[in-house]
Amino acid sequence: MKIQYKEVFATFPLMDPYRLHKRIWQWFPNPNGGRPFLYRFDRVGDKLIVCLRVDAAWPLSAQPATAAQLREVDGQPGAEHAFTIRVVPEIRVGSRVVALPMNEDAARWFASKAPDNGFEVDRIEASSRPLVFRGKRNRKITLNDTVIHGRLSVTGSSQFATTLLRGIGRHKGFGFGMLQIKH
User: Fold this and answer.
1) Among residues 99, 110, 118, which one has the least CA distance to residue 160?
2) C-alpha–C-alpha distance, residues 181 and 149, integer Å
3) Which residues are registered as beta bridge partners of 183?
4) Which pTM value belongs to this model?
């Protein structure tokens, strides 16, 4: 099974994740059924490089992109891929959401998410740092920004396809949760 999606790249001036989130939503004036995209941002010098993932059927002319490409990933059970993902590892304890400590706990958290998302992890490394910014009503937000790299093996084709388009974890609106397969 081949899984197809589009990755669109754009460059923005430096801004906090909340403002970036608002700018990207402007590309989708009438979203039906929730957020039709995932994105990830990386700071490069004095700019933000944004990788936006949308369904393969989404028209490329619909956004101010600097580059766009159709991606195809092998989703057959047993297929192996190198990956990277930015996440905010958190767990629910009763009605509260609790941030996990850095690095090692984050790697275990991600590995625990793998079976429900159609893959298992073979090797994994995590590095974390705090990300602090202002959100709605100037409220201070602090997130445990964790980058995880490793290798995975697909175990469930349809679950893995859904994961590539829907992401893993919370805070997707701020650029987290997009599983990137290294090509």
Assistant:
1) 118
2) 10
3) none
4) 0.86
At 56-110, the pLDDT tens digits run 676 655 556 677 788 899 999 999 999 999 999 988 889 988 887 766 688 889 9
Helix (H/G/I), strand (E/B), else coil: 143: strand
> Which class is 75-181 in CATH?
alpha beta
Between CA 61 and CA 119, with CA 83 as vertex, the angle to 5 degrees is 105
CATH number for the segment(s) 2-72: 3.30.70
Arithmetic mean of pLDDT, 125-132: 88
Ranges of each domain in the chain: 2-72, 75-181
Residue pair 103/109 in contact (Cβ under 8 Å)? The answer is: no
**Which residues does 60 contact at the CB level (< 8 Å), separation at least 6?**
6, 8, 68
Is residue 52 within 8 Å of 10, Cβ to Cβ?
A: yes
Integer Cα distance of 178 and 168 in angstroms: 7
Torsion angles phi and psi, residue 126, rounded to 5: -130, 145
